[in-house]
From TrEMBL:
<dbReference type="GO" id="GO:0005886">
    <property type="term" value="C:plasma membrane"/>
</dbReference>
<dbReference type="InterPro" id="IPR025937">
    <property type="entry name" value="PDGLE_dom"/>
</dbReference>
<feature type="domain" description="PDGLE">
    <location>
        <begin position="2"/>
        <end position="89"/>
    </location>
</feature>
<keyword id="KW-0472">Membrane</keyword>
<protein>
    <submittedName>
        <fullName>Cobalt/nickel transport protein</fullName>
    </submittedName>
</protein>
<keyword id="KW-0812">Transmembrane</keyword>
<dbReference type="Pfam" id="PF13190">
    <property type="entry name" value="PDGLE"/>
</dbReference>
<feature type="transmembrane region" description="Helical">
    <location>
        <begin position="66"/>
        <end position="87"/>
    </location>
</feature>
<feature type="signal peptide">
    <location>
        <begin position="1"/>
        <end position="23"/>
    </location>
</feature>
<keyword id="KW-1133">Transmembrane helix</keyword>
<keyword id="KW-0732">Signal</keyword>
<keyword id="KW-1003">Cell membrane</keyword>
């Protein structure tokens, strides 16, 4: 099981850190569809739109898309891993 999660983490980090640079962002697919169907007219800025990882970048620098992806993956894995550890410990099946 550890081998699976390690492989999952490595593949996720590679996709976020390397492949994300090849994504077309002008406009991205979701933006394009919302513009086609008039949904974008009703869009508002997200309250966290000025956050440090907003718009798939670090502090608004589009050259750091991969770094934003890696940070996002690491944070997600830490939160998910922490929740999993807590639930496992609470159920009494954890080893420590």
């Amino acid at each position: 099981m550890k081998r699976f999660f390690t492989g999952f983490a490595v593949v996720s980090l590679l996709l976020a850190g390397v492949v994300s640079y090849f994504a077309d962002s002008d406009p991205d697919g979701l933006d394009h569809v919302t513009e086609q169907h008039g949904i974008a007219e009703h869009a508002r800025d997200h309250p966290l739109g000025g956050g440090p990882l907003a718009d798939y970048a670090v502090a608004g620098d589009d050259r750091l898309t991969g770094l934003a992806g890696v940070v996002g993956v690491v944070l997600t894995l830490l939160v998910a891993g922490g929740l999993f550890w807590l639930l496992r410990k609470r159920s009494g099946t954890g080893s420590g």
